[in-house]
Design goal:
Elements lengths: L3 E7 L3 H12 L7 E6 L4 H9 L5 E4 L5 H16 L4 E6 L2 E2 L2 H14 L4 E7 L12 E2 L10 E6 L5 E4 H7 L11 H10 L5 E10 L20 H13 L3 H20 L5 H16 L16
Parallel strand pairs: 1-2, 1-4, 2-3, 6-10
Antiparallel strand pairs: 4-9, 5-10, 6-9, 7-8, 8-10
Helix pairs in contact: 7-8, 7-9, 8-9
Amino acid sequence: MSKISLVVVTYNRLALLKECMESVFKFSDLLSHIIIVDNASDLETKNYLVSLGNKIDYIRLEKNLGGAGGFYIGIKYFTEKTSDDYVWVMDDDTIPNKKSLNELIKAAQKFNSFGFLASDVRWIDGSPAKMNIPSVEDDLWTENKDYVRLKRATFVSIVISRVAIETVGYPIKEFFIWGDDTEYTKRISSKFASYFVGSSEVLHKMKGNIGADLMNDSVERIDRYFYAYRNRYYNAKHSSKKVYTKYRLRVLNEALQLLFGSYKNKFRRLSVLIKGTFAGIFFKPDIEVRHKLNDKV
């Protein structure tokens, strides 16, 4: 029987992390390893994770590497420190249940050879989580009535095969936040068929069901959009010429909207957009491939 590890990345969201873990522990018999990557959270989070003892494989980082760095570490640990066949990854504000995993396992058994399998991610009111809507493989979306072929998904409840990781390498840790999951899943789906598993539902307990929107997001979140524009530019640059051209036009349009529109702190927002976009032009991170099983992480 195939073995599955779970990777959860956390940073200073103890109440949500506890809810996630309490749910996971209800079906932990289905998991060979529960790997928690702690992005240098506060002492209260550390104490809680230490208290779980051998229920988890606890990796505490010395500094916050962002979601991208956390998933890089977690997936690398899975690949190089376990012999499990698949890794199930999610954020600490994801609330799964036993059916979530069972349906992913059923899909894994059906396809045997695949890149990744993505759950149906829902917000707290039951509507689709806007931050986690996957990208469909347009020409193949009707190939299978129960499982839709995907190009991209997010790191909120996807199962990735070991073979896919060994083939394409690890997520790019330098992304820090935003776009690392879509870059990685696109890299995987370019080599392996990957699927949306609609019968596997999870809850994503975000504060609000909104997408990433620099022009309308709260003031305290503006600076983090540097990574969004840098990483989006990188992803567009490594896509087709058509996608790259459309993205540059989109950024130009957003810049003009900010410049001439009525937005709170609009020049600060515009500055972040410009700085992130120019950084993306010169952003050339390496893609790391796996090492031997007994190498150190």
